[in-house]
Amino acid sequence: MTLDSAVERVTSPVADDFTISRGTTETATTVVVRISDGRHTGVGGVAPAAYYDETPDSVEAALPDLLTAVEKAGDPHAQQAIARRLADLAPEAPAARAAVSAAVHDLAGKQAGEPVYRRWGLDPEAAPPTSYTVGIADPEEMADRAARASDAGFEVLKVKVGTEDDRARVRAVREAAPDTRLRVDANEAWGADRAVEMSAWLADRGVEFLEQPCPTVAGLREVREAGHLPVAADESSVTAADVPAVADAVDIVVTKLGKCGGVRPAARQVAAANAHGLEVMVGCMVASDAAIAPACHLAPLCDYADLDGALLLSQDPYEGVPVVDGRMDLRAVDAGTGVRPAE
Q1: Which distant-in-sequence residues (6+ apart) come within 8 Å of 148 by Cβ?
Q2: Which three-class secondary structure state does DSSP give residue 84?
Q3: Residue 32 pairs with which residues in a beta bridge?
Q4: Which helix (H) or strand (E) element contains residue 319?
Q5: Beta carbons of 35 and 107 less than 8 angstroms apart
Q6: How far apart (Å, rounded) are the C-alpha atoms in residues 286 and 335?
Q7: Using CA atoms, how far apart are residues 328 and 294, in angstroms rounded to an integer?
Q8: CA angle 305–309–310, rounded 5-degree value
Q9: If we measure between CA atoms, which residue out of 162, 158, 177, 136 comes closest to residue 17?
Q10: pLDDT in tens, 122-149
Q11: Beta-carbon neighbour count of residue 235 at 10 Å?
Q12: Phi-psi region for residue 220, left (φ > 0), alpha (ψ -120 to 50) or beta?
């Protein structure tokens, strides 16, 4: 069949300035790919992360060759062959590959008249609830954001830390949302000693696990061995190939389509983690639903989900999988990933 493609760049304002230990995000730019067979259009997106040396410009520069490869394949159902060809063409551009991968899966699902999760044989009821992220701000503002999220039905909050007074911020969130489950993400901001010390304090406040407290695998291992909470690796586990190196240092691996290269690479990372006895959280960047929706369909494979990237935007030209009380309603998707222009 003949396939045509198009690319657009979507920039959306963030509802509340989103701050982590490395900086503040005020707008989120998503590169959106559309692949059409003349009847159906598959949509996929990615919000490239500067941390991984990728930008909207670098993604758009890599896309022509990748989209040409898909057009030559002529069949969005040939996903194994397409994924292999994309990896050969752009091994250093996982974000670009992720956008194309998402669009290919969406198109194949629409052609088949089935949602992606069903094509993978997954149980939509197995998808864990997504956390809602509370970015770094003054304790009072973080408390307000936590209370609003809890009132909106989110039962899990992820709290960003990495300041001189993290305890005041976590305490404010806990007091504002006493019945929510909490997770804490330092984005590599702590040393191992501080992370071990903080883990005891956080455990006393009912925190479930600590995400990427230190920048090194050795540091993560020390926190896991001497600390009081399970440890998750995000920045230290980019692809499936990284899993063996962190397997004895953490309890949880975070997979993201944009950092590993797409839907199939993410599934391989999940399988690698499970083979090493690790749990998995599927995560995301702050991005349009064009980038978030495909990850939602992998959620039933995972133990935890952090797929609130589009929920943090004040407006989004795309809609995806509905989220009700913090739970993804995959059954609401008729075909593909569920991405469609916002009404």
Answers
A1: none
A2: helix
A3: 8, 45
A4: strand 318-319
A5: yes
A6: 24
A7: 12
A8: 120
A9: 136
A10: 999 999 999 999 999 999 999 999 999 9
A11: 17
A12: alpha
Q: What is the DSSP string of 8-56?
A: EEEEEEEEEEEEETTEEEEEEEEEEEEEE-SS-EEEEEE---GGGT--H
Q: Quote the pLDDT of residue 1.
A: 76
Cα angle at 319 between 318 and 321, to 5 degrees?
Answer: 145
Residue 316 to residues 5, 30, 61, 209, Cα–Cα distance (Å): 21, 10, 24, 31
Q: What is the pTM of this model?
A: 0.96
**What is the CB neighbour count within 10 angstroms for residue 6?**
11
Q: Kindly tell me the sign of the dihedral angle through the C-alpha atoms of 301, 302, 303, 307.
A: negative
Helix (H) or strand (E) holding 112: helix 94-112
Q: Are 2 and 74 in contact (CB under 8 A)?
A: yes
Nearest to 307 by CA among 145, 186, 128, 161: 128
In contact, 179 and 153? CB cutoff 8 Å: no
pLDDT tens-digit map of 28-65: 999 999 999 999 999 999 999 999 999 999 999 999 99
What is the greatest pairwise CA distance in the chain? Answer: 59
Choose among 294, 292, 306: nearest CA to 267.
294
Q: Find out whether 332 and 322 touch, Cβ atoms under 8 Å.
A: yes
Tell me: the pLDDT tens digits for 292-301?
999 999 999 9
Q: Tell me the two tokens of residue 221.
A: 């291992």
pLDDT for 135 equals: 97
Token pair for 282: 């599927």
